[in-house]
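S1.2 Input.
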Amino acid sequence: MTVLPRTSLEQWAVLAAVVDEGSFARAAEALNKSQSSVSYTLKCLQEQLPVDVLVIRGRRAELSEAGEVLLRRARSLIEDLRSLERLATNLAQDWEPEVRLAVDVIFPPPLLSEAMAQFVPESRSTRVQIIESVLSGGQEALLSGYADLAITHRPPPGFLGNELIRQEFVAVAHCDHPLAQSSELLTLRDLRHHRQFVVRDSGLKRKQDAGWLGAEQRWTVTHLKTSIQFVKQGLGYAWLPRLHIAEELGSGELVPLALEEGGSRQEVLSLVFADRDSAGPATRALARALQSVCQRTGP
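S1.3 Output.
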């Protein structure tokens, strides 16, 4: 059997107004109600509760200890209800409750943070689900319908994207690593005798290799941060995005390898809609924020 609440959120909201405004009269004015209506609402609230929420001291009504505890919980419920009402309004305006963004891990985290901060004022409390992907992972998120928007190095077949940012990958090692100590130009043969770190493709169906040169001691990791950490420890070498290791390159902790050829390469990251025509306002707002941040950064 369903038991309905004996009190209403409107009653608790009136109580909150009385406490916040400091008197019945000012609360009535703030709520655009008559003072008698405010008094009657609180009288009904009190009658439905087994404890007193207000105590009279002189001419002032103040919260009891029990009232403080109950009102604190009630404020949370009131805010939840307001959020629910905002969500209903957003849905009526075709504003999505959630946006799913697939982001290739080579996209610079500071730019992503800046874009998200720019999106917040427009977000209307929209939830954002960020799917960190590697290589074909972003493509699969689009093809499967799991992402509304993706930052990927290559749009999948049937999709169009706009260039967002170019990332330079540099072959690097720790400054004390034998490869970094070489006085001669390094060849593919030289590299094959040392450990190389490669980030695993997060896709399941179209797995790709990028930057692997057939090193016998290949170590495959799941996240770019792990590869960077291993290189910093002097365990091997890797092609890493320059923007992700700018501090280490600046300090000399990591150094670019003097390769005979192929010491660096460019990767273009594109912004791709799952379906631009049906994209909702929240998805479009997030896309604008990402484009704005990357345009200021330059190619």
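S1.4 Remarks. The CA atoms of residues 14 and 256 lie 66 Å apart.
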